[in-house]
Write a structure and sequence with these properties.
Blueprint lengths: L1 H20 L1 E2 L1 H11 L1 H17 L9 E7 L25 E9 L3 H69 L8 H32 L9 E2 L15 H7 L1 H22 L4 E11 L6 E9 L7 H69 L5 H36 L3
Length: 422
Amino acid sequence: MKKIILLLGFSFVLWTNLQAQKILKLDDILDSVQQSYPSLRMYDAELQSLDAAAKGARNWMPPEVSAGLWMTPYNTGLWNGTKADGSMPAQGGMGSYMIGVEQMFPNKKYNDANEAYMKAMSSVTKENKEAALNNLFAAAKKNYYEWIVIEKKLAVLADDQKLLQFMITDAETRYKNGLGKISAYYKAKASLGNIENMRVELQNEISQRNIALNTLMNRNKLTTFSVDTNYTIKDYSTMVFDSTLFYNNRSDIKAVNQNIQLTYLKQDIERQSTKPQFGIQFSHMMRYGNAPTLFTAMGMVKIPMNWSTRANKANIESLRFKVQSLQEQQAAMANEYSGAAYQMQQDIAAKKKQVTLFENNILPALRKNYQSNLLAYEQNTEELFELYDAWETLNNTQLEYLNQLQQLLSIQVDLEKLLEIK
């Protein structure tokens, strides 16, 4: 018997620990999303790809090698120094076999500009990754808070079931003894069935949130866990939502800014493309007959002329207008976000007032109303109908309060998403 008791005690402790391990806090879920969501790893791979491509920014043009006959007569008899009629030798021979090599040197400033541009390309992807992560955080927080509210609704339904069961049992007893009417009895029975129906629906919603959060954490979709039902209503009532706040916080606006910087760097590349480019050419000529071998060593320069730089100048002008377009896009985004943030701030203030009224005035009054009707019912001075009506009003108001609370938490998540607050 002692062994059985010890085994049961150990099993209970183990089961309790396992249950405790299944509770995931919001921060744990957000950390898991950041580490495991597939699209974020996609951005990491893209960043590595861009960084790898930037290593080839300081590139030289390939050398050009040539080989063949140079200034060689069609009459092969002249190659070895004989005259056209073959009567007497000429001085030396005519024609050469030439090997040449040519190399253009890159413009250092052009390479500097190209390297700066390619290294900066990954900056846009980094900001896009942060914007995607912000959206994932918002999705996780919404599902988490909705789950918390559903758990609270289930707790209300559990209490309601006990109260209705008491009403039904007591009404049956009173009716058998001829002490009460049966008018509200069937309404209580129907409400009991409705509560079970709501419970099934809410349990399904929890399953949906469970799957959604597992998906965001990139793990087995059917892994079950619980959530910490504690939550915090944050205070954003004193925040000022000016453009600077969004320029500093919003990753999508930062991505536009990085595009502006890339456009400036692209302009610099186009400017450097209009500068001269230098090179060398060396040729070695092996003469036929007794003629001496020769060589040429020449410097070369590509001189940009008006007719050869028109495309570069047009690109520079086009990129200037692109910068203006991106700057206007930034201003429009910041203006839109600022207006949306102030609207959400007002919504949060209004919802807080509503939730506070429920907590401090409406629900306490309805609970007292129910308790007074319950006491009167127990003392046979009230009918079941009045008690049921008091319970129904309290129950509906409790559920409405939780709906208001969920809306408040949802708006808070939307504002934090707008401000990119984890």
